[in-house]
Each structure stands twice: as C-alpha cells, then as structure tokens.
Amino acid sequence: MTAQTVAPVTIATVGSDAAPSWLSERLAAASHPDALRAFEIARESFIASRRIDMSRLAATLGVDRTSLFRWVGNRDALLSEVLWSLAVPTLVQAEHACAHLSGGQRVTGILTHFVDDLITAAYFRRFLRSEPARALRLLTTKESPIQRRHVATTEWLVRRDLGDAPLGGAIDPSGLAYLLVRMSESFTYADLISGDTPSAARARVAFQLLLRVDP
After folding, report:
1. What pLDDT sits at residue 5?
2. Structure confidence by residue, pLDDT tens digits, 44-60
3. Are the beta carbons of 134 and 76 closer than 8 angstroms?
4. Contact at 8 Å (CB) between 160 and 87?
C-alpha cells in the first residue's frame, strides 16, 4: 500500500480549502462538465466587462434556466466563484512579486499588490460601478465565501511570515488577518463605502502601521 501524497497548501488553495462551496467543490472535482462549461463562459463574460445574465447564459448553453440553476446554483453563487477565480491568480502574482521580501514587509507587499490590482482592473471596477450593492454584499460580508477565503488566505500569510504570535503576541493570527482584510476592503472599495478614492498607497501605509513595518 502506498501512502497518499497530500498537496501542499499554497496561497492559491488555502482560501477555497478553508471556505468551500457546493459549486467550488463541483468545479474542483470536474465532476460536472456542463457546470464547468457554464462557469468558464460566465468567467469570460465577466473579464470582457459583460454582465453575467443567467437567461443569456442558459441560451448560450442551449438549456433552460432551471437546468442552469441545477448545474451552478443561483447568480450570486456563480458570481462568487467567478470573482474568487480571478482573485487567486492575482494573489499568486502578488506573492511572486514580493518573493524577495520577508516578515511583515512581505505581508505588506502582497496585500498592497492585491489592493492595487483590484483597483486597476477595469473589468472589476465596471462590476463595482454597475452593481455596487451586490458587489459589496458578495465581497465583504458573509453572504458569500469570498471574504472568508480572503481572511483565511491572509491568516495563512500572517502565520507563515509572522508566526503564531504576531506582533509579540499582542493579537492572534486570525484577529490580525481579519483587521488586515477589513483595511484592504476599506481602501479598495472606498468609492462605494465612503465616496473616497480607492488607494493602494494609503492601504500600504495602513498595513505598515498595523504590522509595525518601517516604510
């Protein structure tokens, strides 16, 4: 009998592992080709700055809406997985860009890169402008798994780069991760939350202050 090889946890996997959904598990297992095809078409539409419309998507697939909902769930469920599928490569790119850093500098760098990419992605900003209430609900509340995945990913970074007792044990990793995510959200979605201008530069300063990192 051979031992099973356990895949290492990475910045690309930790979020979905911590907060899986019915659809994410179905897509990961590739157990339903129709669901995967629907997801891929929806993702392409989102990147092309087209609204994900369930009726149009069903027509493209040559099925009725009932079948589509049975394959992927409702629109919010599909949107959540599309959004997270785009966040993952962004996080991976941010990690690669900060590979030369360590400790709090690396956490600050990765989180700042992520904020900057979200602010400058034209298709993502279009979604925020066209559906602000839905966007904030899916991205920043418990209504979808996205925020839980974001927090889990950030906690993984904190534990990896700052240890299990960050900031001298002043706060636990999960609490620090939650604060970092809320700060990230505040600067990424500043225009929707407070009417301010989104700013990666201001986010960086906030991360540095919280993590006690020298500029």
Report:
1. 65
2. 999 999 999 999 999 99
3. yes
4. no
